[in-house]
Amino acid sequence: MANVSVYNMEGKEVGTLELSDAVFGVNVNEHLVHMAVVSQLANKRQGTQSAKTRSEVSGGGRKPWRQKGTGHARQGSTRAPQWTGGGVVFAVKPRDYTIKLNKKERRLALKSALTSRVAENKFIVLDELKFEAIKTKAMKNVLDSLKVNKALVVMDQKDENVMMSARNIEGVKTALTSTINVYDILKYNTVITTKAAVAAIEEVYA
């Protein structure tokens, strides 16, 4: 089992924590991690874009000039794609971009992403993360003491003070253990979490 240091909000080491190999010590499956990211980004697309083909634009019912003898290239319609105001060649149409992953694949991809963060020493555990009031400066001080500038802060339960304190800091995002995903884990340089959040993650994914 992997052991990680536990820090307080001042950045001082106050102990260690043993992580479950079932979640934080799996064999990293890079292909599944890639598929999870592709699936997540694809599923965000609305797929509502639409353009008109030459059969759908108005006008152009009459041949603009006779076939021969004018010196111009032959034209059958002023709404052909080469004309201004003409239809679009291979016009995009509404479609569903959804890419589905099996439940087991999603879970393994998430565990692979978490394992990679632990292996790269980019997984920081705090004994607790609490603020008495909403204060961006307080959150910034915590990040500075941990020497982190771009981080995903994972909490076991919703804490308005922490979420609002981190909201205006560029490169920092808060998430609950129930909403973490592969894309965010890989996007942010460091994952900052609490002992309670680690226990919640292990309970769900072990």
Number of helices: 7
What is the CATH homology-level superfamily of the largest domain? Ribosomal protein L4/L1
**Overall 3D form:** elongated
Reported by name, the CATH topology of the largest domain is Ribosomal Protein L4, Chain: A
Q: What is the string of helix and strand elements?
A: EEHHHEHEHEHEH
| Biggest beta sheet attributes | 6 strands, mixed
The CATH class label of the largest domain is: Alpha Beta
- Write down the domain tally: 2
Give me the CATH architecture of the largest domain, please: 3-Layer(aba) Sandwich
End-to-end CA span:
13 Å
Uncertain runs are none
Strand order of the largest sheet: 2-1-3-6-4-5
Computed over alpha carbons, the radius of gyration is 27 Å
Which class do the helix and strand fractions yield?
Answer: alpha/beta
Percent range of helical residues: 25-40%
Tell me which oligomeric state these chains represent: single chain
Structure, explained:
By secondary structure, the chain is of the alpha/beta class. The protein folds into two domains: 3-45 and 102-205, Ribosomal Protein L4, Chain: A, CATH 3.40.1370; 47-96, no CATH class. Helix content is 33%, strand content 15%. The protein contains seven helices and six strands; from the N terminus they run E-E-H-H-H-E-H-E-H-E-H-E-H. The protein has helices spanning 21-24, 30-43, 103-119, 136-145, 160-166, 182-187, 195-205; strands at 3-7, 13-18, 123-126, 151-155, 172-176, 190-194. Strands 2-1-3-6-4-5 form a six-stranded mixed beta sheet. Strand 1 and strand 2 form a beta hairpin. The longest helix has 17 residues, at 103-119. The mean pLDDT is 93.
